[in-house]
Amino acid sequence: MTRTYETQQHCPVARSLDVLGDRWTLLVIRDLGLGRTKFGEFLDSLEGISPNLLSDRLKRLEEATIVQRVFYSKHPPRAEYRLTEKGEALRPVIEAIVAWGQRWEPQDAD
Amino acid sequence: MTRTYETQQHCPVARSLDVLGDRWTLLVIRDLGLGRTKFGEFLDSLEGISPNLLSDRLKRLEEATIVQRVFYSKHPPRAEYRLTEKGEALRPVIEAIVAWGQRWEPQDAD
Lengths: 110, 110
What we know:
The structure is a homodimer of 110-residue chains.
Chain A: H1 12-20, H2 23-33, H3 39-45, H4 51-63, E1 67-73, E2 78-83, H5 85-88, H6 91-104
Antiparallel strand pairs in A: 1-2
């Protein structure tokens, strides 16, 4: 994987954000953590994302070995997505973001 | 602040990423957490960022009340940036990203 932060290679935050530094990416990881596995489920959940963009993000996550694609039907070919061990290891990141958001970015009143 | 994820308003991850979901933003917060306070310090640290982009990110962080700008000289006007309480509360997020990056995105061998 090409690193954007070539010059900041020594910093683990910069290295991580090379992989995670896109808002949809972390939302896909959140969905996987919540048990969603199918392309269509992500598409429903991530309102506003286009199929192409979702496809690209999933591909990048596969390349980064955060997500694995498992085929469960050959005819027609159907796949589902699962977090790898590296992907599961992002749970504390998501949890820290959840805690911060609940405390500091509360939901707007209706 | 306008929310990008209008439809995902109920999700604290989506709400947080509305504010944080940009790779430079979290790197600026990392720098502030490391004690950097001056515009020039961020510019030196964040190789590849343009002054305009940095200025925009700092402004957004101020609007989100994550960062405050403190003037320490009137003539010429000079400011420094500090994390607010809300910004300091992001420390566990940065720490979780550091831990993940150290374990799962190790530095390339030279």
